[in-house]
């Protein structure tokens, strides 16, 4: 379980996360909604230890991410997919996927390559194992990024606006893969502006506003008139996003 207790993060005088309490249990798909600057991406970066908290705590399966001696153990439990792909340009798709399992988990090369090949096939990229990122479309690169995260066999998949840099067709490709992962029981914390997709795949929806947690509700309740929509700020946000 990912446990977030009173998480607070500041950048100078700006409080980006303000006392966030959140629980992510295995098997859940939790979408995080909110306007730009609400703290969504910072939350993901704090969970994987890329940003240090100024207050509160975050643990992943009991490993405190603020403790340097436990951070690597926490990171082994979760895989992160970023909005800008972050693939190594000098490595093929196969090499990008196998690097971390071989270096961090000490998986033998043959086993790592077999896993990577199977993952690429699962996302429709069986013929692109030896392609470099520059030879792939944006949607294909993002699918490689998802494979890279899954190759570490994480218990939790953290997704930070993974479709924001893609055109509508490429976005549809990536969302289809994520829907399959959700259907297969993959635990996901999904930061997104794809409102309808969040409605379809999420077990819960979290809403952040100016660093504060305004709502943490089952999906049906979040989108109900007497649930999340009863809060003016959430209703305002959704009306703008669904026009």
UniProtKB/TrEMBL annotation:
SMART domains: AAA. It comes from the Bacteria. SUPFAM superfamilies: P-loop containing nucleoside triphosphate hydrolases (SSF52540). Keywords: ATP-binding, Cell membrane, Membrane, Nucleotide-binding, Transport. One of its GO terms (molecular function) is ATP binding. The keyword Nucleotide-binding applies. The keyword ATP-binding applies. InterPro entries: AAA+_ATPase, ABC_ATPase_HisP-typ, ABC_transporter-like_ATP-bd, ABC_transporter-like_CS, MetN_ABC_transporter-like, P-loop_NTPase. Transmembrane segments: none annotated. Pfam families: ABC_tran. Residues 2-235 form the ABC transporter domain. Belongs to the ABC transporter superfamily. This is ATP-binding cassette domain-containing protein.
